[in-house]
Structures are given as C-alpha cells and as structure tokens.
Here is the input.
Amino acid sequence: MSTVFNFTFVPWFRSVAPYIHMHRGKTFVVAMAGEAIAAGKLASIAQDLALIQSMGVKVVLVHGFRPQVNEQLRAKGHEAKYSHGIRITDEVALDCAQEAAGQLRYEIEAAFSQGLPNTPMAGSTIRVISGNFITARPVGVVDGVDFQHSGLVRKVDAAGIRRALDFGSMVLMSPFGFSPTGEAFNLTMEEVATSVAISIQADKLIFMTEVPGIAQDPALPISEDNPIDTELPLDAARKLLAALPPAQRPTDTAFYLQHCVKACEAGIERNHILPFSVDGSLLLEVYVHDGIGTMVIDEKLESLREATADDIGGILQLIEPFERDGTLVKRSRTEIERDIGQYTVIEHDGVIFGCAALYPYPEARTAEMAALTVSPQSQAQGDGERILKRVEQRAKASGLDSIFVLTTRTMHWFLKRGFQQVNPDWLPEARKRKYNWDRKSQVLVKKL
Here is the structure.
C-alpha cells in the first residue's frame, strides 16, 4: 500500500467520521427512479445503500418503474398515456405495471443478496422486507380525464414499517397500493416515498433521479457559471415552485421539488435531489460536507437568518467569552451596530446560539467571514456548518469567487470544510493594511 494512499485515505476517513456518527440510528427514505435501474446503476446503488445501512442508518427504499412499464407497453403495442404528470393506468397498463414491479423486486432483492469476495457487498447481510404497507384510493376523474387504475396514497402502515426497520431490515416498497376491497392501484414513486417519509417522520427523504439537482438560476442550463444550488431554504423553494409551471415530466424543475417542499412542510428537515448518473452520489451527499445535489432544508427548525438591530445584545453576549480568551478579535458595540447587516445568526427560542459576519471586498471578488461563533451549549450539532453554508450563499449571491477567514485556533475546522491556507500577502490590499502581524493569524481561503 503506497505512502501517498495512506496520507490521503486517513485524513479523508477522519473527515467523514463526524457524518457517520451524526447519521447512526437515523432513518432515510431513498426513492430510486426506474431510470436508474434501466441505466444499469442498480448494483452500485445497492452497494452504497448496504454500506450506509452497515453504518447504522435505517433505510426504506422505494423504487420507480416508469421506463420498465413503458417498455412492457411497447412490447404489447400499447401507448403510454399521461395527464397532469400521472400515468393513466388502464387494464393493459395495470398488467404491465404488475409485471414490471415483480421483475424489479426480484432484481433488487438479488442485488442485495450478493456477497462475493473483494466486492463492497462482501460479508454484508442485508435482509430486505416488502409488504402491503400502503392503502390506496383511486385518483378518479380530474378535469375530465379518467385515471382508471391510477391511485393516490390513502394511508401508510407506519408502525409496520418501523417494526421492520427496528429488526434491522431494509424495507423495499413498490409504487403499488391496495384498497380495503383488494383492488390494486398504480401509484407514483414520488408520492409513495414522500408519504412514507412523512408518516414515519424520517430524517431524510432522498430522490435519486435523472436530474442533477436544481440550478442556482433554474431558467438557464447547468454550467460552471450556473452550478447546482446545494442548499435551498424552504421559503426560497416555495417561491421558486410558485413561479414554475406545473410539472409534467420528471425532468421538469418542479417535478421533484414539489415533493421536497411537501415533505419539508410536514416536518422532514432534509430533502435531497441527487443524480443517479454520478457514481457514489448517495455517499457524496450524505458523508461529504458540500454534497453533490440539491438539499431543501426547513430553516424554521434552526432559525437561521440575517441579523437585525434587535440581535446586537445577543451577539455581544455570545462572542464576549471568545474575545476574552483571545479566540476572537475584540469588537465594540459600535462596530457591531454599524455592521449588523453583515451578520448571520442562528436563534433558538429567542436566544442567539451562533453568528458570523461577511465583509465583502468586491474589487478582489472575495469576502472575509469574521466572528464565526457557536455557543458552547450547542457545539457539535452542526450549527457552525449551517452558518458557513448561509455565508457561502450570501457571497455567491453577491457574485464573489471566494471567502477567506483569519484564525489563530480553529484552522483545522476550516481545512476540513474546503478551505486552503495561503500567505497573508494573498489578502486584498484594503484588508492587508489592517492585518495584525503580531497576532500571526492564519489566512484560509475557500473558492465558491
């Protein structure tokens, strides 16, 4: 084993350890589009899910089967019909859906049964349980369109799902439901996953889809200048959804976003849209700081917001102990009053538990993040990372290319989150003139 591998693997493994601890015992509902299976991604996704479960995460896997049903319909010379983004399920389509669901369950269970040596599944024991956990009702007639055997979720057997998860099993669900009279209904994978996540109050709802996420400007194609918006607050997601046309196809921006918003409003704190085309996207999203897709987050739970004049006293009280022990440079009340618009805070029950300020240097297309502070009572709960994310968003929205920090004691925290150390001569001229050479602060930069 090479020395280079040792020096890259060990720091990397240590950097993901906090996320392993954070997610142990949590419940994820993972919705895998049928297109992922059609694209040959099932084996790698199964390996990643098995790895996640081995690290203590409880997993509910909901699979889609849109392309598989369409393939069955084509083989029978029957046309696939949709309206309002939902399949119109006649008798032929219902038969095709049942055949496709049975075949996919077989393939998925087989994927989780592999245990060949020298593969990620070696030594794993994944017990997969399926069942009639969904009670459904018909969609009925909408705007004059009879959806026939297409249905909606009426009820989820949350207790049954939780019992299966508590036994250490992975729960596998097809987009089918049954009425109390035994009639079968074809459901959408997206609605089943969302309803299950809400019913069991999952910690995450994750859509593995044919889209890479939501661009910062959804009206333009994704590019280096218009990258994926990795964190979308619920209020911003609502506004975006209201401005978009109704979703008809899975590639429409609103298609998965509407379900993320619904789940977020029902108490699911983190809702993700990931591309299945990227190998390991599930691991990258869950165990890497910046993630790879779009996460819709409910900020009401964290009260993460920009500061107002009413927060000045709380900010002073928060940072004063850190100024006293030399961790932070001392700031007067006058300075904070003057700069209050630059601050971001986290508030819990009317108390400020975290803050940071952003001072832009537009001529250098960068900004300084200063006074990043989290109360000792709430440290190790991710508040610092949430503040950092918000500050990054503010800097991006201002058209800046990077942010930098000056620190004497917390360099490694920033290094783990994508910052790189530079010489103080890198600083913008205006900031360099104020640099305290006696304090010998380390300068770290993160490109946005």
About this structure: The longest helix spans residues 3-23. The longest strand covers residues 351-361.
